[in-house]
Amino acid sequence: MLHTFVALVQDKPGVLTRVASLFRRLNINIVSLTVGESERADTSRMTIVCEAPETAAHRIRASLYKLEITIEIDEVSRSEAVVRELCLIKVSAGPKEPNGLHSRSQIFELANVFRAKVVDLAPESIMLEMTGSSSKIEGLIQVLRESGYTILEISRTGRMAMRRGKHTSRVLKALGTADDTNGPAPSTQLAPPPDLATDETIPGEFAEDET
Fold it and tell me: Cα separation of 171 and 190, whole Å?
């Protein structure tokens, strides 16, 4: 099954390699990984989607905590979080297509149905931009192919996720909604899980075979 982890990590060189190496040691495939700036200074937010057995979630989370670059780690499900993905699709739409220049109007109609945007129009192609769930993006790609259109390029960001409705006191303060009379707002920061067994300890530095 697919697991989605949202991690806050230190913003420093080599962090991405450290995380990827950890999953390699665990023999777990990363389906997608997105990383960018977070609301904290010198901190990056990673959204990691991996394919692993249901029972492996605790071990993955515990192993991530073993990395000194990890600040927080949370596993979210689709019902608990807003999950989105950005996709760019370049479709051939020149006069040589089966429907000729009429193919452009048909692609426009498909884009409206799937709420995609036309972001580039060239003599031989149309580029679509779509934001949504992975299944919705896969649906548009499937319809384009089944309709006989040639997809020239696809670029996808991978999943990004954010937990619904639960804010830390830091976020509430920034929004100006914190209520000091009732005490500090609860925090969603999770305590680190129990330590791994000795044979599951993850090295803190790069292995000698890594470059």
Answer: 16
Cα(30)–Cα(48) distance, integer angstroms? 7
- What is the pLDDT, as a whole number, of residue 172? 52
The DSSP code for 120 is E
pLDDT the model gives residue 55: 86
Q: Is the model's pLDDT at 196 over the cut of 80?
A: no
Within 10 Å of residue 135's Cβ, how many Cβ atoms? 8
**Lowest mean pLDDT segment, chosen from 30-39, 47-56, 91-100:** 91-100
Q: For residues 150 and 141, what is the distance between their CA atoms, to the nearest angstrom?
A: 10
Q: Which domains are seen in the chain, by residue range?
A: 1-76 (3.30.70.260), 82-156 (3.30.70.1150)
126 vs 93: CA distance, rounded Å: 6
Q: Are 5 and 81 in contact (CB under 8 A)?
A: no
